[in-house]
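Friendly challenge for the regulars: who can give me the structure tokens for this chain first? No prize, just bragging rights.
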Amino acid sequence: MSTRGVIGTGVAIWALALSLSVRAHPGPAIAAAAPHPVAKTRPAVPPASVAPKPAERAKTEPIPPSNADCLACHGDGSAVRADGRPVVVKPEAFEHSVHGPLSCVDCHQDLAKGIEFPHPEKLAKVDCSTCHPDSVAKYKEGVHARERAKGSIEAARCVDCHGMHDIKPKSDPESRTYHLNIAATCTKCHGDADVIRKGGIPSDVTKLFADSIHGLALSKSGLVVAPTCSDCHSAHDVRRRDDPNSHVSKMHVPATCGRCHEGISNQFNAGAHGMALAKGNTGAPTCQTCHTAHGIQRAETASWQLSVIGQCGTCHLDRIATFRDTFHGQVTNLGFRTVASCADCHGAHEMLPASDPRSPISKARLVATCGKCHPNASENFVKYDPHADKHRRAGNPVLYFTARFMTILLAGVFGFFGLHTTMWFMKELHVRRARRRRAGEPVAVHGARSGEGTDGRDR
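First reply, four minutes later:
Bragging rights claimed.
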């Protein structure tokens, strides 16, 4: 037999074997022969005896709409709901968004279940937790989600902060959540008088923040290192300040501010106020007690340094009263910043009692502290009591009796000369009337002018 005959016989045998195999196992052989992409759009056809009807095939393997299918309607600029609300999706904006590589049905998952088109007007709400489980979990713990659960439609949702079909990454300067844009994003709700009223928000803090050192650093200087709303309140689990887990609760504020002001935070924690707060004393002052929460000003300005004296006085009532009695207090009360105020002697953040050797007002350091303003300060000079209380006899009896004497003397002087002036006036009035009688001039009676009768007419 020739070579050609051998090859032909082999091919015939191989074909016969393949035919028998297909007849014995029709499913796998056909499945193997069909490429995967075709199987996705056109299911393999099984033998006629078991093949489902066309309607059943469509029901078991629905084909979701493509983005082009969705944009055929939603890409039209005039697309609106029955109530007139627009449902337009700008193709270019969506393409350049962070979700551009995704399909519409990745978010609108109910459309992937074979819904007839045009689809129902009301679709299932998009579940962002499918891709962002951690962020959504934090959001549900925050005040926005809790208020929405109570029925408030003003509370912010994901789309209110991030957008809908034009979402950009937070690193994009055009993103609503870009660092320099976050304040404006929050202002849309927290600067809206209607939202503030309906949401029970205490006040509009956006204007205070805009004029603060932080707000001006963002808007005027463009500093991306300056803190914005989310740096203090967090991005998703925003909580009320009375919530113990809030980033701006009284116990957590030093740590929140300390993320930027680490050096100041260390000083505060080492001071009397920080140590009292660490022990759970919620009455102890913290950062916002002196600097306020939103309208924070530069600490170097004279106006702020004068105003903060009053902040110290809200806790130290007895000390602020005695300070105002001194030369230092009298000058600062007039609005001048040329003399010492609280922070100049006690320190700004690491305030310690006089018994602590590290304190600026301790006995060992007092001369140096006073010497900052008084170069010739000595041991005798620092015996001056900057908080001498004239109302306490036990603390300083000499000052107490001197103040009492001066008070009595002052009252006596004003009382004596007041009585003297009154009596002199009465005498002068009597003398003038006597002169008019001797001169034959009419005398005013009951307030009537000279030359008039008691009825006010000329005589």
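Residues 397-438 form the longest helix (42 residues). The CA atoms of residues 371 and 377 lie 5 Å apart. Your move, everyone else.
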